[in-house]
């Protein structure tokens, strides 16, 4: 980020300043066909990306207020006809704030942790159970990753 775009913003630097800003992204696609193994296949040309630097924070003083990111996601899902889909799925990294938005906008959606983060969580769990950096932890995690 340019310094002028960060002026006055609080951040994680020792002096409280910011060096970056977080971009929130919503990716949508359709999957109407299956491969030879029965797995859904993303439809060609159906992927849409929508990203912005905006807040996802809830304002608890105003319970009916919806964060800008949640508003953008809902607009995109409406535009794409998501709410008419027979099966609605949200795939995300498992952060609580994402599931909170999903539950508010799409309460009936199936929630799935993406593969990268699922493997990351399994590896962390292996370290807790068997000891960080041990062969037993690595083997246990690798078996579950597969």
Provide a descriptive summary of the structure in words.
The structure is a single chain. The protein has 5 helices and 6 strands, in the order H-E-E-E-E-H-E-H-E-H-H. It starts with a helix and ends with a helix. The longest helix has 16 residues, at 115-130. The chain has a two-stranded antiparallel ribbon with strand order 1-4. Strands 2-3 form a two-stranded antiparallel sheet. Strands 5-6 form a two-stranded parallel ribbon. The chain folds into 2 domains: 3-113, no CATH class; 115-146. It is α+β, with helices and mostly antiparallel strands.
Looking at this protein, list some descriptive labels.
alpha+beta, 2 domains, two-stranded antiparallel ribbon, globular
Provide the succession of SSEs. HEEEEHEHEHH
The overall average pLDDT, rounded, is: 90
In spatial order, strands of the major sheet run 1-4
Class inferred from helices and paired strands: alpha+beta
The share of residues in extended strands comes to 15-25%
Unreliable segments of 5+ consecutive residues: none
Helical content band: 25-40%
The 3D shape can be described as globular
Number of strands: 6
Distance from N terminus to C terminus (CA atoms, Å) equals 39 Å
Task: Give the topology, please.
Blueprint: H1 3-6, E1 24-28, E2 33-34, E3 40-41, E4 48-52, H2 68-79, E5 89-92, H3 96-105, E6 110-113, H4 115-130, H5 135-145
Parallel strand pairs: 5-6
Antiparallel strand pairs: 1-4, 2-3
Helix pairs in contact: 4-5
